[in-house]
Amino acid sequence: MPAGTSRRIVADVKCYFCGHVSGQIVGERNQRLRLSNFVPRPGYEGPPLKPGTRLRCERCGGPVFLEDASSSVPSRAVSEALKRRNGGGDSKAA
């Protein structure tokens, strides 16, 4: 793995009650997973997430857990998009 490349952890957000997957949590290895790292599934219709709220199942409102956590190296395009989102990187228009 090239120097400066970090590994990402991706886990499904799955309901204890009905088994529905509402989306994924994506984070950096060796960092805390945060609610702000939640990526809703396409077509997500659950409530908007706000600071101080708990993540619940979009279908039945039940409690959720993280399943199928896997580690991956993000592609260059993903890494550049994250830099732009976080205010870093080059801001020149193409």
Report helical residue fraction. Answer: 10-25%
Radius of gyration: 15 Å
Strand order of the largest sheet: 3-2-1-4
Total separate domains: 1
Low-confidence stretches: 89-94
Main sheet record? 4 strands, antiparallel
Mean pLDDT: 79
The string of secondary-structure elements, in order, is EEEEH
Overall description:
11% of the residues lie in helices and 30% in strands. With 94 residues, the chain is mainly beta. A 4-stranded antiparallel sheet has the order 3-2-1-4, with no helix packed on it.
Reconstruct the topology from this structure.
Elements: E1 8-15, E2 21-28, E3 38-40, E4 64-72, H1 76-85
Antiparallel strand pairs: 1-2, 1-4, 2-3
Could you provide a short overview of the structure?
By secondary structure, the chain is mainly beta. The protein has one domain. It has a four-stranded antiparallel beta sheet with strand order 3-2-1-4, with no helix packed on it.
Structural features:
globular; 4 strands; 11% helix; 94 residues; 4-stranded antiparallel sheet; mainly beta
